[in-house]
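Annotators were shown the component list below and the corresponding predicted structure, then asked to write short factual statements about the assembly.
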Amino acid sequence: MSLPDRILDRIDPAPDGCHLWTGAVGQGGYGNTYFEGKYVNVHRLIAGAVKGDVVRHTCDVKLCCNPHHLIIGTQQDNIDDMVSKGRQKKGALSDEQVIEARKLYADGRHAKEIIADLDLPIGRSGLYAALYGTKYGHIPGERHRKNKGWT
Ligand SMILES: [Zn+2]
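Structure shown to annotators:
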């Protein structure tokens, strides 16, 4: 399957191997795009999922579209996975934390290290949303926007 450039251009490989969607984000925090007449979740499109399939992220990053991080499974797999990873980590970041995290990421630090170093109460999905400005967009300062293309 070949995807149009307007979709591929919005995917940005991160240093830790995830390919992050930088376009529109829909409810649930997944990348959203218009493709062949309807709105679809980008990671499902990349994974080649059909209706009824559940697509899981082995990396736990909702915006990730790296086909090697996506597996098609059942809803129950998904629940088991969430429980085993214990990813119920939730919290909010202060403005200072967001600014600091964006600075570290611009310096080439990996998301995992940034979360550990700054002791952030969020997972990588939440961090990427902050880095890309889909969350905390009100905070001024550098956001991660560079696009190295599809690899
Ligand atoms: Zn990933």
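Statements collected:
1. Residues 95-106 form the longest helix (12 residues).
2. The chain has a mean pLDDT of 84.
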